[in-house]
Specification:
The complex is a heterodimer. Chain A is built from 7 helices and 9 strands. By secondary structure, chain A is of the alpha/beta class. A 4-stranded parallel sheet of chain A has the order 3-2-4-5, with helices on both faces. A 3-stranded antiparallel sheet of chain A has the order 1-6-7. In chain A, strands 8-9 form a two-stranded antiparallel sheet. Chain B is built from 5 helices and 4 strands; from the N terminus they run βαβαβαβαα. Chain B has a 4-stranded parallel sheet, with helices on both faces. In chain B, α1 crosses α4 and α2 crosses α3. Chain B is globular, with a radius of gyration of 16 Å. The relative contact order of chain B is 0.21. Classes of the chains: A alpha/beta, B alpha/beta. At the A-B interface, α1 and α3 of A face α2 and α3 of B.
């Protein structure tokens, strides 16, 4: 899932304080699961905004709404569309995709981001998420027995570890981040696949990543034209 | 005017203690409005902030003592949420001392009454409340004189 976290309250308040009616719009998918922008967080942030507005004597009415997915036009039904159009501005608690999709669907409306979108990650335990995929566009997990050096090595090295691997941990965050190459080596050894590591991996084709420009996929079998 | 205080109390301990306080004829301020919950584990951050938005001057959460929660860990989780809610209040400029978590066993009627009195005093004396503001003005007046 896409993992995000809320901007600081001050950053959010500074963005929206000049609007008299504000719609705080949550997203019911990824950011609900990572507890950053779902219905619950919309409620908490809205109440914070109301309290701050009372305290600072700012005239602000805060509306709340959460839809299933902000990145999908079909979930913007008449109820939410009406609120978006009536509000002075929308504070989106979706990821960066959600914010931009609202802008595309409602070009006359001011939309502000309430979250910082961080990474594609897994939920390791309640309240803990960690990056697992970098969305590089050309998956190499088959070569590394299911552990991604692109996302999980701080340097995205494809041919073995650097000198910053110590006691199985990465020097960038030795408390929390395992060395991806230690993980890859241990797993391949366990599966008797160490020979695969002797194969030299040539430089990756990064044009499938963002380096090739914004991504776009069109499935002719799925389009309605 | 006395401050308006909302007390979220768990059914098994703090609410029973409040009931016992009444049975024991213990006096505590009438401004405490008790909301009974099955467990303080039901407490949600939004519930706490919502009370302030609706006009509460103070909010207390009272659950079982640590280790004796009927649902094992509900009170410990509630404490974490109260701490988180305090941060959220501080971010918007509301004094986090207006929110507090207490652990009160079912047999401790007098402790519930005392806690209710103490918390009411605390809220009344915080700047922003009438009594607290008078004290603050008095302090400032003295400072100006000197």
């Amino acid at each position: 899932m896409i993992v995000a976290e809320q901007k600081t309250f001050q950053q959010i308040f500074d963005q929206v304080k000049d609007h008299n009616t504000l719609l705080v719009l949550g997203c019911g998918t990824c950011v609900t699961v990572c507890m950053a922008g779902g219905e619950r967080e919309v409620g908490i942030l809205s109440n914070q905004l109301r309290l701050a507005a009372q305290k600072q004597e700012v005239n602000m009415e805060v509306w709340e709404h959460t839809i299933t997915r902000q990145c999908d036009g079909e979930f913007f039904d008449a109820a939410v569309a009406g609120k978006i159009e009536q509000a002075d501005a929308v504070l989106s608690l979706g990821c960066g995709v959600g914010v931009q999709h609202i802008v595309e669907l409602f070009p006359d409306v001011r939309v502000y981001p309430g979250l910082n979108t961080r990474f594609y990650g897994a939920n390791l335990e309640q309240g803990v998420w960690a990056e697992r995929c970098a969305g590089c566009g050309e998956c190499v997990l088959d070569q590394y027995e299911g552990i991604c050096p692109v996302a999980r090595c701080s340097k995205s090295l494809l041919n073995g570890p650097c000198g910053g691997s110590s006691d199985g941990m990465c020097e960038v965050n030795p408390e929390t981040t395992p060395c991806a190459w230690q993980l890859i080596y241990d797993r391949m050894k366990k599966l008797n696949q160490l020979e695969k590591l002797l194969e030299y991996q040539p430089p990756k084709d990064w044009s499938k990543d963002h380096h090739g420009g914004p991504g776009r996929i069109k499935r002719e079998d799925m389009t309605l034209e | 005017m006395e401050p308006k205080i909302i007390a979220f109390c768990c059914h098994y301990c703090a609410f029973t203690a409040a009931d016992l306080a009444g049975t024991m004829r213990q006096q505590y301020p009438t401004n405490i409005h008790i909301v009974r919950l099955p467990c303080t584990g039901k407490v949600d951050v939004n519930m706490l902030l919502g009370a302030f938005v609706e006009g509460a001057d103070g909010v207390m959460v009272a659950g079982c003592e640590v280790g004796s929660c009927h649902f094992l860990e509900g009170n410990v989780r509630a404490k974490k949420r109260v701490d988180y809610a305090k941060k959220k209040l501080e971010e918007v400029g509301v004094d986090p001392r207006k929110l507090e978590m207490y652990h009160i066993a079912a047999s401790e009627g007098p402790l519930f009454a005392q806690t209710a009195r103490d918390f009411t005093d605390r809220i009344a004396q915080l700047p922003g409340n009438k009594e607290g503001q008078e004290q603050e003005n008095h302090r400032q007046g003295k400072a100006d004189e000197s």
